[in-house]
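Case 361 in the screening queue. Each case pairs one protein sequence with one candidate compound; here the compound is KG4. For every case the pipeline is the same: read the inputs, emit a complex structure as tokens, and attach any notable structural observations.

Predict complex for case 361.
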Amino acid sequence: MRILAIESSCDETAAAVVEDGETILSSVVASQMFTHGKYGGVVPELASREHLRAIVPVVREALERAVTPFAGLAAIAVTQGPGLVGSLLVGLTYAKSLSFATGVPLIAVNHIEGHIHAVILESRRDGNPIEFPALALVASGGHTHLFEVREGYRYRLLGKTRDDAAGEAFDKVAKLLGFGYPGGPVIDRLAPHGDPKAVRFTFAKMKGNALDFSFSGLKTAVLRWVESRDMEAEIAARRALVNRNPTPFTEQWLEITPKETLDLLASFQHAVIRELLTRASASAEACGARSVIISGGVACNSGLRGAARTGEFAWPVYFPSPALSTDNAAMIAAAAFPKLKRGEFAALDIPALANLSLTSN
Ligand code: KG4
Ligand code: ZN
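Case 361 output:
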């Protein structure tokens, strides 16, 4: 059973054809990184416009690469939310139109559930299925959530960020320091060149749910650190480098980044990883998890992968391959497959929901 999936919730236009929820026949992702790079973050209006440009060729390419005509599809899956409403609308409207024109049923998918299924797909395909209940940490540019995942893909939210998402913290710190957008990949590459213990960041104790995250204090601490030093020249040099070349090599960054700044990056990344893993451990313990899933763009982070695989982290941990960590449509098809089996189809008048939550279903 083949599913065509479409994903357009943020700044990636993606389409994929996946067979039986685990065999990826095609996965096409058109990134808008170069459009948003110079603004230091995603500009919603530009994102919708780029989705409009990309949606038809991206879907066509996914179907062509999978050698699958519409008649060979069991369903068309699409991200309904959460995300930027103007971006979601492009994918959702196109998916509805295709469903209406071809008679292939529509399945609505929650983007966060997609991130979780990226890991479930690969673990099943590789013959190493995840044991439930599992604890899922989804950390990306828009979300930092902890879910208990029970057998049958039922979800319970245990904690989430109260302010910035983890990826957003990477992006804002990178922007502040002149490293361009997105911030995660460049900080990841430069952090090993600095000392993670050089700058001590402490997290304020929060009232309420102990499993919630907060990253805005860390971002402010970095801002204060920068303001208390004379860093204007090096920041300007990096901004000039990104303007000339949106994807500089690590060596080019190292040439214009002093050791003290590398120490700051390493310490910042270390603090984010500690915050993520501390709350993931506490949540896994709270729900009696037998395994831990870490997904979303931040799951690409090599420091996070390394730290989660040390003996200190007590659970078997599953990460998606880097291509399935950031936004893609294969994960949306994978999340749609159990819904297809349950006959859980969507009406053609469903709205795009910017704040769609993932609860038990
Ligand atoms: O999942 P994703 O592609 O889109 C959202 O749903 O937001 O995640 C993008 C986010 C960005 O904030 C980016 O900086 C972060 O993931 N990211 C990383 C890394 N690669 C991407 N953060 C830390 N380390 C990385 N290697
Ligand atoms: Zn995402």
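Case 361 observations:
- Residues 116 and 289 are 15 Å apart (CA to CA).
- The longest strand covers residues 23-31.
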